[in-house]
Structures are given as C-alpha cells and as structure tokens.
Amino acid sequence: MGLSLFNTYIGIDYSGAETPISSLKGLRVYRADQTSPPAEVLPPPSPRRYWTRRGLADWLVERLSDKQSTLIGIDHGFSFPLSYFDTHHLKYDWPAFLDDFQRHWPTDGDFLYVESIREGVHGLGAERSGDTRWRRLTDIRSGAKSVFHFDVPGQVAKSTYAGLPWLRYIRRRTGDSVHFWPFDGFDLPAQKSVIAEVYPSCWRRSFPQEDRTPDQHDAYSIAAWMQRADRDGHLSGYLHPSLNVEEKRLAQIEGWILGTM
C-alpha cells in the first residue's frame, strides 16, 4: 500500500441533461480508498434526490481542500481537437480555451440548457462550432466518439459541453492545489490531487454490474479501475502513455483519456 500514489479515488459518470441546478438521475459518484471498494456518494440532504452539476462542482471543491491526495476521473471530454483551435484562431493554451468556451457556451448558467445554446436562444455557440469529423488523437486511440458528435448513442458531446465550464469553475477555486492531467504536465507533484478525463466504456466489462444501473456502474467502474491500477503499480505507466514528443505536446492541448496508451 505504501507505493500507492493516491489515498482516495472518485469516479464520476457525468450528465449533460437539463440545467446545472436540475437533479439528474444520470449523474453518479462513487468513491473508494486504498482498501475499501467503491461506494456510491449521495448528494447532501435536500429536496433534490440526485446530484446537480453545480452541487457536484461545489462538493468537489470542498473535497479537494482537505489535502487528501485524491484521483478524480470524470466521464466527459476535457478539451477539443487541434482543428477547433486552428479554425477559431485560439492559442494553444488550455486555461484560455476554457475561458473562451465558457464565454460562448455559458452552460454553467443556472437555467441554461446545452440545447438552448445549440439552438441559438442563448450564448454565442454558433461562433464556436465544431465538426463531427474532428477527433482528438486520444479519441482515435481509445475509440471514443468525437466531442462534437451530438444526438447519437454513446455520445460524449452533450456532457462535454455541459461539463467544461465546471472544470474552469473548479480550477479557479482550487488554484494550483489541484493538478489537471495532462494539461498541467504528465508528471505529478507529490501528494497533489489530480483530475483526469476517463472513458468508462473501456472498463465497465471488467467489473460485475451486480444491481447497479448503467450510470452507477460506469461511475463504480471508474473508481474501481483507478483504485486497482494504483494498487497494482500500473497507474504510473498509464499516467505516462506511449507518446512521442509531438504527441505529448498535442495531448497537453487536446487532452488525454486516462488508461489510453
């Protein structure tokens, strides 16, 4: 156990449905430590039965302030393909990308839907569009769909568009105390918590589903895989995937899915 990189593992199956203050049955959180199996984390008692995106972001900020080294895996895209940056003349800079995205797609607004911005009712989404043919290198390697591919089974687009402003929110409130992998580097500072993009489709069949719903099982699988990979010593290798210098530079712009080599 002494070789483990983290004390705690949090798996999040994300949802881009409805608004940031809507109670979402599809938004699920599981947490494990070095020895205990993942268990579901329910939201604080309130009239809302399930997590909201805003409530989850605030809970994560609070958890990340407790100085426990925590690995958090979130199931949505953390950035966009290089073609998006080039088409919209954006700097190759992830924090600047998050700021620009939130200005055009303010999906962290309490009463805003992703769909209302797609339809042009709110925001400036038309000024920051993408092409379903554009895929990140990590999408190609992992078999994930394009982050611009809406309205198809297994899409990650809606959750990505809903989640990106909340990554910015968490980053602005936690400062440099949290390492966003790999944007802040592939090498991890000791004892620092890490937030990474994950793709539970790669892992869910590795664990019996038991009585969990698909959303619960995806969140469980994220936490269980991260715990297992850390415990058996393989996590460090996954945090340093087999990329050449140019591919590493690209991944620090486009992002990388943890577990993809």
What do these coordinates show?
With 261 residues, this protein is of the alpha/beta class. The protein has one domain (8-254). Helices cover 34% and strands 10% of the residues. It contains nine helices and six strands; from the N terminus they run E-E-E-H-E-H-H-H-H-H-E-E-H-H-H. The protein has helices at residues 53-63, 82-87, 94-104, 114-118, 137-142, 157-174, 214-231, 235-238, 245-254, and strands at 8-13, 28-33, 39-40, 70-74, 178-180, 193-197. The protein has a six-stranded mixed β-sheet. Helix 1 (53-63) runs parallel beside helix 6 (157-174) and helix 3 packs across helix 6 (157-174). The model has no long low-confidence stretch (mean pLDDT 96).
Layout: helices, strands, pairs:
Blueprint: E1 8-13, E2 28-33, E3 39-40, H1 53-63, E4 70-74, H2 82-87, H3 94-104, H4 114-118, H5 137-142, H6 157-174, E5 178-180, E6 193-197, H7 214-231, H8 235-238, H9 245-254
Parallel strand pairs: 1-4, 4-6, 5-6
Antiparallel strand pairs: 1-2, 2-3
Task: Write out key terms for the chains shown.
single chain, 261 residues, alpha/beta, 34% helix, 10% strand
Helical run tally: 9
- Could you give the order of strands across the largest sheet? 3-2-1-4-6-5
What letter string, H or E per element, gives the SSE order?
A: EEEHEHHHHHEEHHH
Fraction of residues in helices? 25-40%
